[in-house]
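User: Show me sequence and structure for the first protein, then do the same for the second.

Assistant: Starting with the first protein.
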Amino acid sequence: MMVFRLMSAAAESVSAALGSIDYGRIDTFFAGLSAQGMQAALAVQAWLGSLGWLFIEWRTALLLAHLAGLVVGLGAALLMEIRLLPHLKARPLERRDLAWLETGGTCVKVGLALLWLSGAGLVALGWLKNPDILLNPKLHAKLVIVVLLTANGWVLHQLVLPYLRSRVGHTILGGASRAQLAGLMGSAALSLVSWQAAAYLGMARELNFTVAAADILGFYALLVAAAWGLATVTNWLVRPAAEARIAMAQSGA
């Protein structure tokens, strides 16, 4: 409806202008043009006002970007680890699997970038309203966790992915040294726990100014250690049987 009102106002303005020219009333022409222009401007203003729901506030947009970063990063990290499970011992890694993992690594980088940019924006907006937000222990703990996530992302692209490229055609952990095994398990545990911890801290408003950062990080460290230990113990239990199956398959071939 607003569009039709705008077109009608424009038509009236042109009609009034032409009419005033026919009668030679130049002053009336400009007065009529000004009045009709004002009506057109008011119509445009009303039309834009009716579309106000399309314009999202900065904080809402940053929250959406922050949520998108968490979803993309956590989803990619989980899918990468699920994708790797069959290849740890029983199945050789194929090139298509490696391409899929590299795509997942790129998604992790995108998630981290969104997390940093939107997080910085949210903190800046919060600081403008309440400077005490910088004293929130939960914010300090989340910052440490995101820094660790970023460092782990660097490890993923500089160390883990090159190692996986070298294992194409072989099982991932079949020829891994103890140091490589510990590094792979540690990186996977840190990634899995850190993404979930960042997502939880982003939603847990009840932790604002109520729990010390040291307590949050202490519990987080326990979760990472538990996940790392569980992965290592599982590998010790599964490895002999898996290697025996691979040896039998190779001898049969």
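Switching to the second protein now.
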Amino acid sequence: MNIYDVSRQAGVSIATVSRVINNNTNVSEKTRAKVLSVIEENGYTPNAFARGLGLNTMKTIGILCPDCSDAYIAQAVYHIEQGLRKNGYDCLLCCTGFEKKVKEKSMELLISKRVDSIVMVGSFYTEDDDAENEYIRLASKDIPIMLVNGKLAAPNIYCTLCDDSAGVYDVTSLFIESGHTRILYIYDTLSFSSSNKLDGYRKAIKDAGITEENTLFIKQSSGEKIDDVVRALSEYKDFEKKFDGIIASDDIIAIGALKYAKKCGISVPDQLFVSGYNNSEFGRCSEPEVTTVDNKLEAICHQCVTTLMGVFAGNSMPKMTVFSADVVPRATTDFKERT
């Protein structure tokens, strides 16, 4: 049995059935009793669509992410889903990949499912070419759009992110203050977040009066990030003479750097400082444990859900919330204490 069967047997509209299901007071007691009787007699269990008809809400949120196998993205989706569930909302997840056409199609799919909002997880959803972001702005005319670790200005778009530039600036400055000035910065994406991290590195180098920038973009030809890092670093001759520090855009890349250092007999942190980013479980599982930057992922996701619930309640909510990152020193560095 479905809502249409209940409607037909009770002799009322499907909207009236949904109002009864949702305890809407705009139904007479006589009609309510009739509908409840049909529901009880047939053992009908209402689904989300039936509940949504009477409330103009499906109590369902769409989540878009580029790749749920990525540790950072998976953790973010987990925190968001848990927060939404606590507030009585179900979720529909679409893993879009990175092609714009698929992103747009996934957005259209979720909207067709009558979701109440869409949360876009990851900085790959905001493009440098602003015209490429128009499909997001168009969607925001119908429902609130939440960006996690992204930034886009529009009336019904709400952004929650970390100041990645400042986070990398701080850890780079700690390297320099500890006497490690020949620093290689390694990254593997060109996303909004990745660009901000690279800017932070370059600003710290410039502010310290260091003229030479050393950056390495890792192309993942093998599909195994750690192996690709080792391969790329192996192309440097006399690596230990060129660099005394590596700052990576995420913890996995930092672990690749550690693997290379062990292979070459380079002592960490005595000869080489290494730092990652994201404060993930990977950094704590490695030996030695990796210094990292905590980008407050759980707090960002919690704030995203809080902002969305405020929007639903009709409250005035901040269009952008930015969290500060913290450096987490571990065994791959030996920072001098700041005075």
